[in-house]
Amino acid sequence: MKKYFTKSDFQVAITCPTKLFYETNKEYFSNKVDNPFLESLAEGGYQVGALAKAYYPEGIEIEAKDPDLAINQTNELLKKDEVVLFEPAFQFDNLLARIDILVKKGNHIEIFEVKAKSYDSNEDRVLKVRGIGVLKEWEPYISDVTFQRHVLRNALSEFEIKANLTFVDKSKPCHVDGLNQKFVIISDDSHHKGIRVSSNLSREDLREKVLVDVNVDSFCDVFIETKEDVHGNNFFQMVKKYSKAFAENSKFRPKITSGCSDCEFRPKNPQNEQINGYAECLNEVLGINKEEVFKDCVLDIWNFKSKDKLLSSNKFFLDEVDEDDINPGDSRNKHRQWIQIYKSQSKDDSVYLDKVGLKEEMDSWKYPFHFIDFETASVALPFNEGKRPYEAIAFQFSHHKVDEDGTITHANEFISTNKGEFPNFEFLKHLKNALGNDDGTIFKYSSHENTILARIHMQIIENNLSEQYAEYLEFIKSITHSPREYSMKWRGDRDMVDLLDVVINYYYNPKTKGSNSLKAVLPSTLASSEFLQTKYSKPIYGTPSMLSKNFTDKTWIQFKDGEILDPYASLGDIFKEDQEYIDSISGLDEIKEGGAAMIAYSRMQFDEMSLNESNELKKALLKYCELDTLAMVMLYEALKDWMKDV
Prior knowledge:
Blueprint: H1 7-15, H2 17-24, H3 36-43, H4 45-54, E1 60-61, H5 67-77, E2 82-86, E3 89-92, E4 95-98, E5 101-105, E6 108-119, E7 129-130, E8 133-134, H6 139-155, E9 160-169, E10 183-187, E11 193-197, E12 211-215, H7 217-226, H8 235-248, H9 277-286, H10 307-312, H11 323-326, H12 332-345, E13 352-353, H13 355-363, E14 369-378, E15 392-402, E16 408-415, H14 424-435, E17 442-444, H15 448-462, H16 470-479, E18 497-498, H17 499-506, E19 507-508, H18 518-528, H19 530-536, E20 559-560, E21 563-564, H20 576-585, H21 589-592, H22 595-606, H23 611-642
Parallel strand pairs: 1-2, 6-9, 14-17, 17-18
Antiparallel strand pairs: 2-5, 3-4, 5-6, 7-8, 9-12, 10-11, 13-19, 14-15, 15-16, 20-21
Helix pairs in contact: 1-2, 1-6, 1-8, 6-7, 15-16, 18-23, 20-22, 22-23
């Protein structure tokens, strides 16, 4: 079979040409989970793609997986004067393009690349050019369709070809109930995933589109004119050189940049036995040997915007960085960055606490303490009439309570996994019942909970339910503050305390390597706190002295090879692959938090699964969310213990 260079290969190479070699040669380590189903499910792509095709009932699917067979079938069908094709295949040299939707009328062809990304058709400025190039947010989509158009314009030079992106239109409320549930994800005997479109999908369901087609030829032209890769190649040079290297299995010389921070070919574990592509890059460019590649380096400085500047000054390891390079001054962020660097240079893995600032912060908290965590999703196709694409869906919360006498209780939880149910208002009622009986301090971790409650506030107003939910609107405003982009402004008397801010401002643990993710902060805090190790090395959790809704006689501190096991690892692997996928697609902590729960919820909504499988997944979600709020409690307990003599 001929080795074709596709848009997926181009997308890999355009971020870093060297990755193309590692991607092709599977003996190299990669933390990327190669699971198109999870990727599409996370983005809503399965449903959006199927809906886009449903608007063309006359469309013909090119079902052949073999590229050459698909190309032949496509060419035969293109002999028709008018035709709509799904997944047609085209070849130019060793380039291959498979188009989501192609519409041919005479010698005019329009291609539509379908993306499960939200787009507001009321805002002309959404897709635009800034300075000398396409906005970074839109570049992956424009580069994708530019490659497809390039192949077609060379393969079908006698045709006039126009390129479009099809997005989910977030400005369009859905005019029917249950549209979402008419596109069900199914598995065949080989566990390959696909979509089954309901036989009940009607013309009425499709009468008003929730998708929007945007012509992007001008943006493709700008991309071609302005885009250069790290080696200074323009678009045509990129396509030619990348496809040639791909065919010859040759490797581009690496260039070390800040983008290497989250490289999927960078293993975190020195014991990994696969070939380390990241190490090869460092050796080839900087002469660093494989024993040094796991040393603390500039790439891992938290929230540091000048990594490339340091790299260009030939400073790679943290022990090469001077205080003047950071200039901590009065900036909390820069002060935190310098602490990370100084601790690394000093080989000091002890905890840093700003005890003066932390005492002032903790003195402002009021018992009883409430620790909350939300699990949420935003689905591309709305569940209900009147709802818009990508509405925030709050399907679960966990709530731990800490009394002044030290009693810890998993006090409340809520979960809604019923297919097609919009749970937000019921979620809000349960949350108010959990938190509305006192004026104790409420804790969250990151801005997520505040954002979700603000969105529910707006949903109530937009659905003309303000009178019915008046007390709930006031409740939301009492425990949140208005997001920056909202025209309505408020800050509640019980505005939630963000423990992420507490960590950033007052606490640094070198074991986190600069990460502030709760998934990193919890195990590092357990490893550093004798108090937590003593308390939770006994089966105390889920007993009458520490009530739990999902655990019984649980021992959280367990050791393996002298190291404390990550408590999240003890929850089992029922959605382990989901979490691995989330970890592999983003270096952003705020996306990783709760990502696996979001995919698990999406599976329960759209995937065909047995009642037993659904129930097991629900139990796992409850445990997962409970541990999130317990992790916050443990963090609080460690900080309180470290501050006991202040």
